[in-house]
Amino acid sequence: MALNMKTYTNTQLLEMFERHLSAMQTPSEPHRLYAPIKYGLEEGGKRIRPTLLMLAYNLYAEDVERALTPAMAVEIFHNFTLLHDDIMDNALVRRSRPSVYAKWGENVAILSGDAMLILAYSHLQRTSTPQLPRIFECFNKMAAEVCEGQQMDMDFETQEKVAVVDYMRMIELKTAALLAGSALIGAILGGGSERDCRRLYDFALEVGLAFQLQDDLLDSFGDERLGKKIGGDILEGKKTILMLEAFSRANEEQREVLRTTHLRKDLSDADKISTIKALYEELGVPERVEQQIASRFSKALSILDTLEVEAERTAELRHYAENLIGRKH
After folding, report:
1. Residues whose CB falls within 8 Å of the CB of residue 281, separated by 6 or more in sequence, listed in order
2. What is the pLDDT confidence band of residue 45, given thresholds at 50, 70 and 90?
């Protein structure tokens, strides 16, 4: 590895990616096929996955423009999953504006989502590297795991009991696998050793798990003043880590409250949320989840210390993880 190799900041990589994304050309017709794709990819996404891919690449190589094409592939794939998720969830809003499903309807969202998946693979195949077969293998594994995680999540809706270990496996597949796959692809493309590629995968997996646990926590205990709507998971009776941890600690009377509060017609939404939050606090659930987030985050950072690169080169990855887990909205 060359000494004094240029290290890009998270902000620089994000700006570089946004320029590349804005220059992407898609056909204009049929309009109802391609317009939703551009709409879905417009500004508003955090670009967490492509930034991670480019950061992993930059650990080993400085010509980060070479990583833009696979970074586009993972971002397009991620947004394809969101189009189809919104159909399955009957979600009318995405990133504070109408979802593609709400704006154009179910059929358009399905077909445009399919076209986005094809577009993601088109970008991936244009990645210039002898390692392309391996990168395709990583991408396919990642994509399949996201689908497996989504199915598990849907299955949980009709299961009376869900174990915490099963929930953790679900978010590993549905959320963390895409982050881990992005880091792995970036490291492979950049020329990282087999050992480093594996460790970067593990780093991103731990960050992804902490990220989803944090998201669950913020849904109930975030701050609405910072743009986070509070209590949606509670009103849906969703089996998040908070609900499952509460069930594992509750007595039968408390479990009945957890099971039925979201269904009660005599309570307002605000009362439902306050009832469950109070029970969570009584059972020590927020503290328990915060401990799990801190443990995952600490493990992720410790993995960076084992990479075969100069310690200062991992600073931006540390900053990336801190921004992701320390976010307030």
Report:
1. none
2. confident
